[in-house]
C-alpha cells in the first residue's frame, strides 16, 4: 500500500475548475483477481482515507498509468469513490492473451464475483470509462449483475462490426492504426513505445496504401495484433464471427441507469445515438450529452465537462445524493449556438431539400431532369484523401477541406450565400440518381460549410459501398446540430473514396483481404432527383 502522489492531482483540479473540490485523501494498493479459468488479472485499488461514497469498476487495456490512473483513479478517489482500475486480460501485468473484446463479458462477470467476496464491498457498484473501457461496460450490461447501480459510458461502442464494416468498406485507418497501437504499447524501454506513437500515423498511412490489405497490414504489425486479418476477412454483418464482438443484449435487457457521453466528431457517435434511442424506447433510465469533440478530445477539451457530469450521475445513482440532479435528459452542443438542454433526442426528419444543379451549384428548386449528367473517374491507386471527420486518430475533427473541392475526381455543389441563419439538427440524407461503369464502387459524400472568406470546413460525412447497383441511392450522413449562419454557404462533395479512413474499393469484386488488381470506375450522376435533405431544427423540447 502506498500514499498516492498529489502534484498531478493538484494540477488537474486547478485545470478542471468546474469539478467539485476533492474531499479526501486516498491510498493505492495492488490486487490480484483470479478468473474462472485460473488466469489472474492485475488491478490497482484506490481507497479513500475518508468517507466512501461508492465503488467504481474500470476495466482498461491501456495500462494503469497516465492518463487513466489520473482521470479514472485519482480524480474519483479524491472525491470519495473507491476505484478498482483493472488491466484486462493479456495487458500490463494481467495474465492470459489479449483478444480484443472476446473475453470482456466473462472476465467482467468474474471480477464482479470477486467484488462480492471483499470485506469492504457494500453491495453496489458503478462502472465508468471511455472507448474500449466503454465496451467492457456494455459487455457487463449484456447480463448485468444485480449489484450494478449505474454506468457512465463515454464514446463506448457495443458493436465492433458497426465500427469496422458498418459503411460497407473496412475502416482501415482507425483499426489498422489501433492494432498498431496495441502491438507496441508495452514496448520496452518506454521511450520506444513513445517513438512508435509519434510516428504511428505516418506508418499507418503508408501501410494502408499497400495491397493486398492483409499482407500490407501484417508488414506493419510484425508479430503483434494477430487479430487484424480476421477483422478484414469477415465483411458481412450476419457472419457469426462477430457474435462475441457485439452486445446487443445490453440494449435489449439492461435496466441499469446509463449516462452516455459523446462527441459530434467521435468515431462511435452513431452507436451512442442508437444506444440512447434503444434504452429510452424501453423505458430504461438514460441520459446523454453530445459535445463538439473528437474521440481524443474526450480526454482533453471535453474532460472537465465529462467528469463533472459523470460525478453528478454517480452521486445521484450510486451515492444517493439529491442535491445536484441532472437538469435535463439530453444536452447537446449546437455549433453557432452553444450548449442546449433538451427533454429528449428527437430531431426533425430530413425534409428540407437542396437540389444538386448542373454547373456545380446547390439550390432549393429542382433542375431540369434532362440536363446532361455529371461524371467523375475514381482511380483506386489515387483515391481522395481523408481530411478530418469522425476518426479514432488525432487526424479527425473539423478541418479545412478546400483541397477536396479542387480535385478532378470529386463533384462539388455549392449554394449561394444564405440570407438568414439555418438551424439543422438530426441526420441529413443525400439522395442520388447514380450509376457506374463497373459493378463495384464506393460513394463518399460530405457536407461542408464555407464561411464568408471562402474557407471550407467539413460538417458531416456519409459512406456507402455499392454492388451491382444503378439508380436511386439514399445515404444517411452523420448526425449533427449546427447553425449555418447568414452569409455562409453549403457545399456538397461527392467522390468514390475517402482514404485511408476507408479501404479503397479495388473495383474488381475480389475479397478485400487478398485483392491485388484494381479497376478504375467512372461514376455518373443524373440531375432532377439528386438532392440533399437537411433536418431543419424545430427546437422541440428545447429549454430556453
UniProtKB/TrEMBL annotation:
<keyword id="KW-0378">Hydrolase</keyword>
<dbReference type="Pfam" id="PF08530">
    <property type="entry name" value="PepX_C"/>
</dbReference>
<dbReference type="InterPro" id="IPR013736">
    <property type="entry name" value="Xaa-Pro_dipept_C"/>
</dbReference>
<dbReference type="InterPro" id="IPR050585">
    <property type="entry name" value="Xaa-Pro_dipeptidyl-ppase/CocE"/>
</dbReference>
<dbReference type="GO" id="GO:0008239">
    <property type="term" value="F:dipeptidyl-peptidase activity"/>
</dbReference>
<dbReference type="InterPro" id="IPR008979">
    <property type="entry name" value="Galactose-bd-like_sf"/>
</dbReference>
<feature type="domain" description="Xaa-Pro dipeptidyl-peptidase C-terminal">
    <location>
        <begin position="311"/>
        <end position="533"/>
    </location>
</feature>
<protein>
    <submittedName>
        <fullName>Hydrolase</fullName>
    </submittedName>
</protein>
<dbReference type="InterPro" id="IPR000383">
    <property type="entry name" value="Xaa-Pro-like_dom"/>
</dbReference>
<dbReference type="InterPro" id="IPR029058">
    <property type="entry name" value="AB_hydrolase_fold"/>
</dbReference>
<dbReference type="InterPro" id="IPR005674">
    <property type="entry name" value="CocE/Ser_esterase"/>
</dbReference>
<dbReference type="Pfam" id="PF02129">
    <property type="entry name" value="Peptidase_S15"/>
</dbReference>
Amino acid at each position: 500500500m502506498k500514499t498516492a502522489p498529489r502534484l498531478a492531482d493538484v494540477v488537474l483540479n486547478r485545470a478542471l475548475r468546474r469539478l467539485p473540490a476533492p474531499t479526501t485523501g486516498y491510498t493505492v494498493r495492488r490486487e490480484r483477481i483470479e478468473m474462472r479459468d485460473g488466469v489472474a488479472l492485475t488491478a490497482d485499488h484506490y481507497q479513500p482515507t475518508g468517507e466512501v461514497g461508492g465503488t467504481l469498476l474500470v476495466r482498461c487495456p491501456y495500462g494503469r498509468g497516465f492518463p487513466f490512473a489520473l482521470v479514472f483513479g485519482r480524480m474519483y478517489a479524491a472525491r470519495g469513490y473507491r476505484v478498482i482500475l483493472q488491466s484486462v486480460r493479456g495487458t500490463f501485468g494481467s495474465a492470459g492473451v489479449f483478444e480484443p473484446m472476446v473475453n470482456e463479458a466473462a472476465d467482467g462477470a468474474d471480477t464482479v464475483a470477486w467484488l462480492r467476496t471483499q470485506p469492504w464491498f457494500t453491495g453496489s457498484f458503478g462502472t465508468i470509462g471511455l472507448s474500449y473501457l466503454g465496451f467492457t461496460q456494455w459487455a457487463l450490461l449484456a447480463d448485468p449483475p444485480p449489484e450494478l447501480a449505474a454506468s457512465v459510458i463515454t464514446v463506448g461502442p457495443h458493436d465492433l462490426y458497426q465500427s469496422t464494416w458498418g459503411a460497407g468498406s473496412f475502416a482501415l485507418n482507425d483499426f489498422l492504426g489501433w492494432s498498431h497501437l496495441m502491438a507496441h504499447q508495452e514496448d520496452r524501454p518506454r521511450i520506444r513505445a513513445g517513438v512508435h506513437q509519434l510516428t504511428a500515423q505516418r506508418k499507418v498511412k503508408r501501410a494502408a496504401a499497400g495491397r493486398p490489405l492483409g499482407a500490407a497490414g501484417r508488414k506493419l504489425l510484425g508479430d503483434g495484433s494477430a487479430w487484424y486479418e480476421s477483422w478484414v476477412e469477415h465483411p458481412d454483418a450476419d457472419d457469426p464471427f462477430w457474435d462475441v464482438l457485439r452486445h446487443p443484449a445490453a440494449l435489449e435487457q439492461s435496466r441499469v441507469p446509463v449516462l452516455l457521453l459523446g462527441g459530434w466528431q467521435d468515431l462511435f457517435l452513431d452507436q451512442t445515438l442508437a444506444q440512447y434511442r434503444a434504452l429510452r424506447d424501453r423505458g430504461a433510465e438514460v441520459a446523454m450529452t453530445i459535445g463538439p469533440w473528437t474521440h481524443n478530445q474526450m480526454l482533453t477539451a471535453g474532460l472537465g465537462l465529462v467528469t463533472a457530469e459523470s460525478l453528478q450521475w454517480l452521486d445521484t445513482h450510486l451515492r444517493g445524493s439529491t442535491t445536484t440532479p441532472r437538469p435535463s435528459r439530453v444536452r447537446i452542443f449546437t455549433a453557432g449556438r452553444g450548449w442546449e438542454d433538451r427533454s429528449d433526442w428527437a430531431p426533425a426528419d430530413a425534409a428540407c431539400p437542396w437540389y444538386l444543379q448542373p454547373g456545380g451549384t446547390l439550390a432549393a428548386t429542382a433542375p431540369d431532369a434532362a440536363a446532361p449528367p455529371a461524371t467523375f473517374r475514381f482511380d483506386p491507386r489515387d483515391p481522395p484523401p481523408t481530411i478530418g471527420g469522425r476518426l479514432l486518430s488525432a487526424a479527425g475533427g473539423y478541418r479545412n477541406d478546400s483541397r477536396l473541392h479542387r480535385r478532378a475526381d470529386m463533384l462539388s455543389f455549392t449554394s449561394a450565400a444564405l440570407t438568414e441563419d439555418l438551424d439543422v439538427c438530426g441526420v441529413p440524407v443525400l439522395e442520388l440518381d447514380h450509376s457506374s461503369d463497373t459493378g463495384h464502387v464506393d460513394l463518399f459524400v460530405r457536407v461542408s460549410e464555407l464561411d464568408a472568406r471562402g474557407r471550407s470546413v467539413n460538417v458531416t460525412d456519409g459512406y456507402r459501398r455499392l454492388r451491382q447497383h444503378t439508380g436511386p441511392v439514399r445515404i444517411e450522413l452523420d448526425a449533427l446540430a449546427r447553425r449555418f449562419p447568414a452569409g455562409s454557404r453549403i457545399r456538397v462533395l461527392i467522390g468514390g473514396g475517402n482514404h485511408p479512413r476507408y479501404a479503397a474499393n479495388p473495383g474488381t469484386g475480389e475479397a478485400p483481404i487478398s485483392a491485388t488488381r484494381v479497376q478504375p470506375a467512372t461514376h455518373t450522376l443524373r440531375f432532377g432527383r439528386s438532392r440533399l435533405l437537411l433536418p431543419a431544427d424545430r427546437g422541440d423540447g428545447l429549454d430556453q
